[in-house]
Structure formats: structure tokens, C-alpha cells
Amino acid sequence: MKIITTSDWHLGNLFHGNDRLAEHKHFLSWLLSVIDEHQPDALLVAGDVFDNGNPSAAAQSAYYEFLAEAGQTCPDMQIIITAGNHDSAHRLEAPRAMLAKHHVEVRGSIHRLWNADNAGGRWKTDYDDLMLRVRARSGDECVVLAVPYLRSDVVQDVTYSQGVNLFLRTLTERAREKFPGLPLVMMAHMYAKGADIALTDASEKIVIGGQEEVNMEGWTDHPDYLTCGHIHKRQHIWNTDWARYSGSVLPMSFAEKDYEHGVDLVTIGTGKPKVEKLFYIPQHRLIVIPEDDAGLTPSKLEKLICQTLSDRPDGQLDEHFDYVVLRVRQEKVNNDQIKQLEDLVNSKNAVLCKIQKILPQTDITTIVGARRLQSIDDILNRNPMETIQEAYTIRHGVPMEPEQQTMLADLLAGLNNQSED
Fold it and tell me: Do 215 and 300 share a domain, yes or no?
């Protein structure tokens, strides 16, 4: 059985104010060619289909057009989609009944069933709703455990890590009881402890926060394979050979400019699942000029820009232009020179996303032992949790207690969920 796994499409994303619809269509076209070539039995999309809970009409059209074309390209393929933290669970799941008639299953949220008893009754999680049986053309079968992003209301009364662990392990145990002998493939959307994320200028870090790390060490009776969304770097999870992040399909910040992108082709059969990484080259490069902290003079910066960026063909941007960050040191370049450099970049086959003004290292510092802040962007992209913890330590002379950190994390998570919904 062949399964293609992917996640973190972020359809509708604006990259420094630039609409990425053409980029996403470029990826979706590539994915259709991969589906046509490999004719998989299933396509799993593990969350963050859209970049926000209220995507544009154009982003939604691209999504539904892809589903229609994928169904024509590989009519027997089962498509399974789950919601991520960026998605509106209810919006994504709204067309569920209709899509199910076209081999597309969507799981946006966790459903509950009312279980009546002598005491009146109580709500119980409908685990069966997340178990999807997939049959290959060969006759082989597997069960996909389709787990959307677990919000705090699903994992109440325990820490987030404990709640997610309990949920995933309970689901796995019940699936093994219901489908004995069939391979289990789980898809989830979470931040696994130990995952490699970008430390600066990262969209992941603001969303995730340290309190949402899920420590799943010691899980012996795990599914046969786990594909996960949420972390944008393609990587194994917990140094295992059975769990992987397939990564985002496009870089979501300049901190991710060197990430590899693509999808995973997973073969389920006898023995351990086999994973083949299928690489995708995004339509636009991300370039930082200069890449190091060398304080280049205006003339040297001009030379470097001309060496790095190509000219615009016929004076117009082509479909493979570059996204650029220009880094300048304020003590070496004045405002008039910055404007000249900006005009030079904009004359090339490139879009200038931002000018990063590097401040003298002595201008901004944090408390002893903390990461040094060098630019305004460092401040804007910093995890709010870190800033508040450091301010507390400076004011009171002692670090926050674990209970205080948990309360603060819950507050920040609640504010973040409100902004996404």
C-alpha cells in the first residue's frame, strides 16, 4: 500500500504582504504530477491546510480545484484531511458529507456522543469517528487514525502533554482492538518534544510556545507509522524510524530559507514502513544579503546585490523572482544610502521583503544568560513567553514558579486561539 503524506500548506498565506496564491498553485500542480506518477492508495494532509480560519475565496477555490483534479488523476485514491491549529475546524469540516461521496474524508474537530446511564449520562469522545479504513487496489488494508489539532478543551484537567498522550494512546489501543492485525497509520498535528524548529524569525515559535511540547517517550505500543504536521522542517520525530514530520510545502519565514520541501511516499507492507522523500523546489528562492553580520559599506553592498540577483527580463518580474531581505548596519549606512540600496534591489528580478537594520550589539541586551537581541525583528519575532518571564525575573529577582508559567502559557494560548478563530 502506497501513501503520500503532506502537511502545512498554509493556503492563503501572505509573505511579507505578498500574495502566494501562484506559489501554492505551483506546488499543487507539482503534487498532482506526483500523484499521477505514483498512483498512491491514499493522500494524507495533516493540518494547516489554510493559513488562517477565514481564508480568501481564491485560497478556497485552489483547495477545491485540487481535490477535484486529484480525484480525476487517481480515481481510486482515498484523500484524508485533518485540521491544524491555523485552520477553522468547523469551516474545514463543513462540506464533510459531500466530500465523503468523492473519496475525501475530513476531520476538523473531535466529536462527542451522549452516553446515557443511571446517573443521567455524560459525553464521551467518539474515537471511532477518527478511524478510517483504507483499502488498496491490491486488496491490502490499513486503518488511518485521523487526529486533528487537539485544542485545550479536548485535553482538560491535565497538562497539554499528558492530555495529548492519553488521547493518542487511547485511540491507538481502541483501533487495535477494533481492527486486529491491520496496520495503523496515524496523522496528527502537534509539537513533539525534541523537534528541530527555527529559533529566530519563525512562524512556528509564536504559535507553539514552550508549554505545548508533547513528550511521547516510552510509547511502545505506538502506531505502525505516524505522519505529523505543525513543524515546518522535514525530520524524524524522537529519532525514530516510524514517525516523521513531512514539513511545510513552502518556507514560512526567512529562518526557513534553507529547509527542504516536498512530500513523503510511505509504503505499508510486511515489516517496517518504507519512506521515500519526494523533493519539491519552491517557485521563489529566499535570499538574505549579506548572510553574515559583516558590516559591509554601501559600495560593497551594491556589488553584492548585483552579484547575487539577476536582472528583470524585459523590465518585468518573471515567475521565478527571489524574495530578499537586505541587512544593513545603521552605523555604516545612512537613510539616503538605504533608499538607494532598496531601489537597486527593486530593479532586479526580486521582491524586497524587508530591510533589517542591525543595531550595535550594546544597544539592546537581556538578562544574564538569555539570548542577545540584535535587531528590531528579533524583538518582534520573540516568543512572548520568554519576554514576560524575563521581565518577571528582573522585577522580582526570582524566576517564575512552574504553576505561574503554566497559567501564563494557558493565557497566551487562549489569546492565540481567539485570534485564529
Answer: no
pTM listed for this prediction: 0.83
Same domain, 400 and 268: no
Cα angle vertex 150, ends 149, 152, to 5°?
Answer: 135
In which residue are the cell numbers 518582534 written?
A: 380
Q: What is the dihedral of CA 238, 243, 248, 253, to 10 degrees?
A: 0
Q: Are residue 159 and residue 268 in the same domain, yes or no?
A: yes
User: Which residues lie closer than 8 Å to 172 by C-beta, 6 or more apart?
Assistant: 145, 184, 186, 221, 222, 223
Together in a domain, 344 and 390: no
Residues in CB range of 72: below 8 A, 6 or more apart? none
Is residue 372 assigned to a domain? Answer: no
Q: Are 417 and 152 in contact (CB under 8 A)?
A: yes
Spatial separation of the C-alpha atoms in residues 15 and 206, rounded to whole Å: 16
Q: What residues contact 162, with CB distance under 8 A and at least 6 apart?
A: 155
How far apart CA 226 and CA 236 sit, in angstroms, is 10
Separation between Cα atoms, residue 91 and residue 94, nearest integer Å: 5
Residues 238 and 258 reside in one and the same domain: yes
Tell me the per-residue pLDDT of 162-196, one tens digit each, with 9 for 90 and over. 999 999 999 999 999 999 999 999 999 999 988 88
Residues 29 and 133 in one domain: yes
All three cell numbers of 185, joined, read 497509520
| Highest-scoring range by mean pLDDT, 150-154, 204-208, 292-296, 340-344 | 340-344
By residue range, what is the domain housing residue 330?
286-358
On whether both 168 and 111 belong to a single domain, the answer is yes
Q: What pLDDT digit, counting tens, does each position of 303-362 carry?
A: 999 999 999 988 899 999 999 999 998 777 888 999 999 999 999 999 999 998 886 654
CATH number of the domain that residue 110 is part of: 3.60.21.10
